[in-house]
Amino acid sequence: MVQTTLYVNPTTGNDSSSGHSSSPLKTLTKALQSVTAPTTIHLAAGTYRATGGERFPLLIPSGVIVVGQEANKGKEIIIVGSGTYTSPSFGEQNITLRLNSYAQLRGVTLSNQATNGTGVWIESAQPIIANNTFTHCTREGIFVTGTGKPMILDNVFIGKDYGGTGIFLVRNAKGEVRRNLCQTTSYGIAITDGAAPLITDNKLVGNSAGISLSRQARAVLRRNLIEK
């Protein structure tokens, strides 16, 4: 199967273009509508928002990789917005982006400033979320529910004045949460219900609570650093 590559530039792109490097699309929305797996979508620096043509929530399908600048954790590639998603387990939610199994999100900054806004929603899927920055998400950066089993690797979660949770795992979620930084959030990482993820090598600084376990949570905790 041939790997397809698309390019998106919110400043110089055009959604009527081919999506080649010399003729990028304007919106991630259009790129996601155009793809057939396996595909890598490269995002240029800029802000991806509703006023620029994005339609939220975005969905990254199985086998699709969305990548920005992993080296600086997406400092110059900002996805900001919110839309309504009806979750099978939690009803209507305000989310920015959802990933199916074997989808990947790498090297972007993501923000959801809507009431009870969630950055990434994972429902019974197995995606990879790596080297991103989550900031100004009013409820949490990443929410994992159902039988979700993601790899959440090397991300930064910053609460600032919004105080949302960094990562929240519920129901029967598993997966791995490795080498993330959670700073000035309400809860850095929260695990509840019967969730049983591996939580290892994370740094949690200046949060109201570093790691919270409740109900029948069965998380495995290894080498996490918690500081005031």
What is the topological layout?
Layout: E1 4-8, H1 28-34, E2 39-43, E3 46-48, E4 58-60, E5 64-67, E6 77-80, E7 83-87, E8 91-99, E9 104-106, E10 109-111, E11 117-123, E12 128-130, E13 133-135, E14 140-145, E15 151-153, E16 156-158, E17 165-169, E18 176-178, E19 181-183, E20 187-191, E21 198-200, E22 203-205, E23 209-213, E24 220-222, E25 225-227
Parallel strand pairs: 1-2, 2-5, 3-6, 4-8, 5-9, 6-10, 8-11, 9-12, 10-13, 11-14, 12-15, 13-16, 14-17, 15-18, 16-19, 17-20, 18-21, 19-22, 20-23, 21-24, 22-25
Antiparallel strand pairs: 7-8
Protein name: DUF1565 domain-containing protein
InterPro entries: DUF1565 (IPR011459), PbH1 (IPR006626), Pectin_lyas_fold (IPR012334), Pectin_lyase_fold/virulence (IPR011050), SCF-Subunits/Alg-Epimerases (IPR051550)
Pfam families: DUF1565
